[in-house]
Amino acid sequence: MFCQECGNKLILKFCENEGLVPYCETCGTFRFPPFKTAVSMCVVNRALDKILLAKHTNGETLLLAGYVKKGESAEKTIAREIREETGLNVIKTKYVASRYHEPRNVLMLNFIVSVSDGETRLNPEEITEAAWYSFDEALGAVTSDSTAAYFLNADVTELKKGRF
Ligand SMILES: [Zn+2]
User: Residue 20 Cα, ligand 1 centroid: separation in angstroms?
Assistant: First the structure.
């Protein structure tokens, strides 16, 4: 591990309440390991009975997702991503759950997001296909044991209990 500011090799040093943390002796500063932040979006129609799932370029059926840009709030990322990827407008968002996804070193924040009715205009660079699914169809469409399935289960539970 190297310092992201000066490039020198980091040592591990005890940090109160944190344990051993990478430390740069040149900068005299702890360097907490960086990670990315992304939003995972369970997009629902205005009637709250259908979920929009996307088929990504790798062939997997997933919830819509996108990285949070530096300086953005998660809510701003959601509005931007929904507009860019589907051409729809966000009505309301609700935070549901989070999970760290190790292969991509990213903290995923999952939200239920209701959108205005209208024709979806997909961005072909990000999504090859998207379709509206009933709650049960959506649960059957994502890979079981995946992060998408974990979030979708939590989202559908909230929606079925009317907690949105
Ligand atoms: Zn340094």
Answer: 17
